[in-house]
């Protein structure tokens, strides 16, 4: 009987090593590819001051995804105290080259950062100057947001599903005299090929005012490949903010 039980145990152990775990299956399951598109947005920020004055700023955003999975976001807005001067900030995420790139126009530099290789985990430790000895062992409980489903709506011909997030900060949580409530709504496309695409986004925070992001137009098809590349004349600067992190490679168990 003992030999039979041992044999069953060896078979179960071998099967566990031969087949991936549920976590491995979740990481390796195929994803539905996005359809390439270019989306144009209008962003409006409004802040009411205590004296009744109102500050209103408008900007535009272009978000594009190509058939290779590259993503580009370009935001154009007025410079502070710059009159009619505009600046565009471009962010590109390239999953093939495993890089994220940022530059501005006008400008002269482009910052390029690298992502860790698949299967690698990073361990980052804070410097001693970041630690506060008075808060050692004390964990602050953040207010828990409340989520509310808003159903579906059609925006610019795209069906989207909405969700409202409400967060209440109790009196004294962040120095506030009375409870402070912030709300935000996010509407994303329901079509699998457009998964994650935002068609409407709003937020209301008494500390910073209101912000709205509305889809203005939408074009299907691959965007011009040039939008994913910074100007050739720009100086390339490597992002070194991750140098203090230790990278470890997680190997699969040997069979």
Mind explaining what this structure looks like?
The chain is mainly β. Among the domains are: 107 residues, no CATH class; 69 residues. It is built from two helices and 14 strands. The chain has a twelve-stranded mixed β-sheet with strand order 8-9-10-11-12-1-2-3-4-5-6-13, with no helix packed on it. The protein has a two-stranded antiparallel sheet with strand order 7-14. The longest helix is centred in the first third of the chain and has 17 residues. The protein is globular. The two termini are 27 Å apart. The N terminus and C terminus are likely disordered.
**How much β-strand is present in the residues?**
over 45%
Shape: globular
> How many strands in all?
14
Q: Helix content range of the residues, please? A: under 10%
Mean pLDDT: 79
Derived from helix and strand composition plus strand pairing, the structural class reads mainly beta
Radius of gyration: 24 Å
Question: Ends: how far apart?
Answer: 27 Å
Q: If helices are DSSP runs of H or I spanning 4 or more residues, what is the number of helices?
A: 2
The arrangement of helices and strands along the chain is: HHEEEEEEEEEEEEEE
Biggest sheet layout? 12 strands, mixed
Order of neighbouring strands in the sheet with most strands: 8-9-10-11-12-1-2-3-4-5-6-13
The poorly predicted ranges are 1-32, 126-131, 246-255
């Amino acid at each position: 009987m003992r030999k039979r039980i041992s044999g069953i145990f060896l078979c179960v152990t071998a099967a566990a090593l031969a087949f991936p775990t549920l976590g491995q299956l979740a990481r390796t399951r195929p994803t539905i590819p996005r359809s390439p598109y270019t989306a144009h947005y209008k962003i409006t920020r409004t802040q009411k001051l205590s004296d009744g004055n109102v500050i209103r700023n408008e900007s535009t955003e272009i978000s594009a995804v190509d058939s290779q999975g590259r993503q580009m976001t370009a935001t154009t807005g007025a410079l502070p105290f710059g009159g009619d001067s505009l600046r565009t900030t471009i962010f590109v995420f390239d999953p093939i080259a495993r890089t994220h790139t940022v530059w501005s126009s006008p400008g002269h530099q482009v910052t390029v950062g690298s992502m860790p290789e698949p299967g690698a985990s990073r361990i980052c430790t804070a410097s001693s100057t970041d630690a506060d000895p008075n808060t050692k062992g004390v964990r602050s409980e953040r207010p828990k947001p409340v989520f509310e489903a808003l159903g579906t709506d059609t925006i610019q011909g795209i069906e989207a599903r909405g969700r409202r997030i409400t967060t209440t900060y109790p009196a004294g949580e962040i120095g506030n005299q009375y409870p402070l409530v912030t709300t935000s709504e996010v509407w994303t496309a329901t079509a699998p090929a457009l998964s994650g695409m935002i068609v409407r986004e709003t937020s209301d925070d008494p500390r910073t005012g209101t912000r709205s992001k509305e889809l203005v137009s939408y074009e299907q098809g691959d965007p011009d490949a040039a939008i994913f590349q910074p100007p050739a004349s720009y100086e390339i600067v490597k992002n070194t903010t991750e140098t203090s992190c230790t990278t470890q490679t997680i190997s699969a168990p040997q069979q």
